[in-house]
Amino acid sequence: MPAVVSTRLLLLVGDSLPLQKLSRVSRMAWSHSSVRFLSQVHHAHKPLTLASLGFKSDFETRDKSKNNKIEKQSSFEVPKSKVKAVRSNGIEAVGANKSLEIEAAPFATKSFSELGLPPLLLERLEREGFMVPTDVQSTAIPTILKKHDVVIQSYTGSGKTLAYLLPILSEVGPLKGKSSNGDGEFGRKTEIEAVIVAPSRELGMQIVREIEKLLGPSDKKVVQQLVGGANRSRQEEALKKHKPAIVVGTPGRVAEISAAGKLRTHGCRFLVLDEIDELLSFNFRESMHRILEHVGKRSSANTHGPKTPLESWAERRTIMVSATVPFSVIRAAKSWGHDSLLVQAKKVMPLESFPMSAPVNLSGPKPGSSSNSNVPAQAAELSLPPALKHYYCVTKLQHKVDTLRRCVHALDAKSVIAFMNYTKQLKDAVFKLEARGIKAAELHGDLGKLARSRTLKKFKNGEVRVLVTNELSARGLDVAECDLVVNLDLPTDPIHYAHRAGRTGRLGRRGTVVTICEEPEIFVVKKLQKQLKVPIPACEFTEGKLTVSEEEKTAKAA
Ligand SMILES: Nc1ncnc2c1ncn2[C@@H]1O[C@H](COP(=O)(O)OP(=O)(O)OP(=O)(O)O)[C@@H](O)[C@H]1O
User: Fold this and answer.
1) Other C-beta atoms within 10 Å of 555: how many?
2) How far does residue 204's CA lie from ligand 1's centre (Å)?
3) For the segment 320-373, what is each residue's pLDDT rounded down to a tens digit?
4) Is the pTM of this model over 0.90?
5) Does the 377-557 domain belong in CATH 3.40.50.300?
6) Residues having CB within 6 Å of any atom of ligand 1
7) Assembly ipTM
8) Which CATH superfamily is 112-173+189-352 part of?
């Protein structure tokens, strides 16, 4: 008999939580290979599996013969150049920079086939070299397939994009399974079924490329990008001509085209808000309001009798994603989602368990206060890849760029992102680096879409060694080879530090973050260190080497 699990479930993967915290929900723990209840279990003596929770692939049970075929196919050789990451420590990640080893690979589940994805999609994943799901993918994919609204929170570079794309592609477009909506067809519908919103053009285009890769060249038109800076009428024409099933865009452009009546999203089944905490910022307020009000909301002609707003939103699945989830996000998910669950790498918990008025304490519980692990307080701390190394280096303002140069040489960094806060200084920094023989380029919002794409391409293919940029590049930018992030100007808070830092050390790779600051700014670094709960020792670059300063060593010893 299958176990009965309430929709307000709490999954713990390889983690434990005090039992008293679990009173309102079904309690269970999920180890790497099995799932078991901690209490209130109807099958207390038998370990539960993903299947017994209904998390095992529908496709597997319904279409065994097809799945067998996939298993056989899985023995075909994946070209080495396509293998993205590997399970064990110390084995090299394949990419432009071979020296970047995977140090803390975030993989728990053995294969994507355990997660309930359709055969064709599994085939494409394998073809593209995605062999093993990351922790957050293992947790998020079955939860979304179970039709829950979710907030996905996991550290930068842990694979959140595929964590939401795979459930969408399981139900939308040519890779979906037969059973996804009962129509028994793999053919395309003519409506938009998924809208993905991201705060920057670069991130929007990156998501489109990830989808296109899985769709393959013949089905590329199933997805369309609607990002700002590009020709709007051309985008509108393409929508009319290709009738994409998935659109990916920036808030302003999606809202604009929607308001003009050229984007029919009332039948949309998925709304993804990537980098949700950024999307909730004041700049995007109006556009986001339009999107949240219109996407997936059916017109009254399609409904039988009046519906409450919650009933209307229940038609779509709302997926909110970020490495940092401050309380504003919890509030938004409670308002715009339907019984949303917070999905982390090893946990799923109902948002209902978060009090509506709790303050978000990014540094964790205050000394003396009772710890409340129900509050996603350690948002910034949990958003940092565990393998990252952090340092700071004190210098005079006029020597910052030279310190950057010495830092790049000392660490023999091949691909560097340097963050600054103001565009003018950013140009000066590029000029100085180039004058000292380091190939550098600037990337910021004052540049046109084409110039931005060109620069990013050059950085990704190694033509540019140091990309000097501002907050524009802090979110979502995925350059696997990036081995060093430098803060030439201080970030404003731990959340901004975390997103900047997260451009390196992606998917368990090695990465270093160096904050170059002036003497009076040291207290800010110390504060960041405390808030983020990571050691940020002082360092110097002398004789082509990074050395942790004597002062720091003495302080540590004491
Ligand atoms: N299961 C996997 N196996 C191998 N590579 C993967 C896997 N999942 C994702 N990746 C790759 O890992 C990289 C990081 O993934 P992604 O950009 O989704 O991270 P993220 O968690 O969204 O990061 P951020 O918070 O910075 O946006 C990407 O290059 C992606 O293609």
Assistant:
1) 11
2) 14
3) 999 999 888 998 998 888 889 999 988 899 988 776 554 343 333 333 333 333
4) no
5) yes
6) 84-85, 130, 132-134, 137, 154, 156-162, 323, 476, 478, 480, 502, 506-507
7) 0.99
8) P-loop containing nucleotide triphosphate hydrolases (3.40.50.300)
